[in-house]
Design brief:
The protein is of the alpha/beta class and about 240 residues long. About 50% of the residues lie in helices and about 10% in strands.
């Protein structure tokens, strides 16, 4: 009997003992399952993680064909859907694309995006192993705040991204992202730094990188928020 069979047999025995003692429900966290998987001997077969790439590409194609917002679909150069790992444990959600993002078709590539990249790297990640997107996939004219009906029209794409990725933590960058997900009207200043939950996924609200460009002193608060995120993920910052 190999070690995997032994683990299965011991697990079944333990569950049967619990059942005989009257236990009818046992909760197993995602972290526990991952830890069990990491203990398998080299070469043992594990169930592969679901590959959501094809489904994400279909969702992106749907977004690129969207014309629900007449003004945005008429003025856009690109539909800026999202970028990164479709199995990421950490997801960043911002407000809407700016001029650089609209031109390049990728979220957070302008000055604010460069700052976000530095924050991600300081956390010990890269842009390739997190997932980055916005509530709105098309640039509002003159970078204005998205209108309520635009958020309503675009929200299904964000929800689909969250459902496919199933991140362990979501970082909401700014008030627009936070309000869209949690349907609250409090300001980001009052809500940042505190944990909330969306569909059983922890959410950490923090300031948008564009705000940090105007208010550099707030970087310390954002870094405190990111350290809380790392702690939630069981990680440490890149420099310890």
């Amino acid at each position: 009997m190999n070690s995997l069979d032994s683990v299965i047999d011991e697990t079944i025995k333990a569950l049967e003992d619990l059942k005989r003692s009257g236990v009818t429900h046992v909760e197993v966290s995602r972290d526990t399952l991952e830890q069990l998987g990491s203990r398998l001997a080299p070469g043992e077969v594990t169930r592969p993680a679901a590959d959501n790439t094809a489904e994400m590409k279909r969702a992106e194609a749907d977004a690129k064909a969207c014309t629900k917002c007449a003004e945005l679909s008429r003025c856009r150069h690109s539909v800026v859907f999202g970028v990164g790992n479709v199995q990421a444990e950490l997801m960043f959600i911002g407000e809407a694309p700016g001029a650089d993002e609209d031109a390049q078709g990728e979220p957070f590539v302008g000055r604010a995006g460069q700052l976000l990249t530095k924050i991600i790297e300081a956390m010990g990640f890269t842009r390739d192993n997190v997932y980055i997107t916005n509530i709105i996939k098309c640039r509002p004219p003159q970078n204005r705040t998205p209108l309520p009906d635009e958020v309503t029209n675009c929200l299904p794409y964000v929800l689909q991204q969250i459902e496919l990725i199933q991140p362990k933590v979501i970082v909401a960058l700014g008030a627009t992202a936070l309000r869209a997900l949690l349907d609250v009207q409090l300001g980001i200043t009052k809500m940042r730094g505190h944990w909330y939950t969306f569909r059983e996924i922890p959410i950490m609200p923090t300031f948008h990188p564009a705000y940090l460009l105007r208010n550099p002193a707030a970087k310390r608060e954002v870094w405190d928020d990111m350290k809380a995120v790392l702690d939630k993920l069981g990680r440490k910052p890149r420099d310890g």
